[in-house]
Design brief:
mainly alpha, AhpD-like, 200 residues, 8 helices, globular, 2 domains
Length: 200
């Protein structure tokens, strides 16, 4: 991977101005300074608000964890973000998402869903990312399952992780040294994932 385009703080060299927010990051559910927060930390107020929003959208939505991770994977694949994909492929497996679904998304193939909830989260995510809109039946399927809060949260997850992916890509934020890349995509630009629904 290319070298990062901006200086990145190492754990042992956090300036005083960034120290307080750094402590909040490493004592929260993330436990470490990784990914886009390494860039955001250049503006401590931005980093603090970023980590608080990210904590809600990653750990505190009404969606089951595996479905939240599914939406993040669709987003990471759309933006071809190696770090986002690799970290969240691991998280998705830990949350119980079928590894074959992960492999299919990585290969830009329609996953074989045995669970309609997974299919609708996939479809909502890829539809919003590829068109900037969501079909009525897709929106209704999410709304019916998780209500107003769920459909708002899912949309926010997709938007937030798009911001994450853009930050990672723009500044070439590297994976942690002990993590091997899993996406290994040579594609540049955006990926349009195929629909899981046949529409006449």
């Amino acid at each position: 991977m290319s070298e990062p385009r901006i200086p990145l703080f190492s754990t042992g060299e956090i300036p005083e101005k960034q120290r307080e927010v750094f402590e909040r990051i490493i004592t929260g559910p993330r436990k470490a300074l990784v990914g886009p927060l390494r860039a955001a930390l250049h503006n401590p107020e931005l980093a603090d608000r970023w980590q608080a929003l990210g904590q809600v959208l990653r750990y505190e939505t009404s969606l089951p964890a595996k479905l939240n991770e599914l939406a993040i994977l669709v987003t990471g694949r759309h933006w071809n973000s190696e770090l986002e994909w690799t970290i969240h492929a691991q998280e998705a497996r830990s949350a119980g998402l079928d590894p074959e679904i992960i492999s299919a998304i990585r290969a830009c193939q329609v996953p074989k869903f045995n669970d309609e909830d997974e299919m609708w989260v996939y479809e909502y995510s890829r539809d919003l990312l590829s068109r900037g809109q969501v079909e009525d039946d897709t929106h209704r399927a999410i709304f019916t399952r998780w209500g107003e809060a769920g459909v708002v949260e899912l949309t926010a997850v997709i938007g937030y992780y798009s911001m994450v992916a853009m930050t990672l890509n723009a500044h070439r934020i590297p994976l942690p040294d002990d993590v091997a890349p899993e996406l290994n995509s040579n594609e540049s630009g955006l990926t349009r994932l195929p629909s899981a629904i046949s529409r006449q």
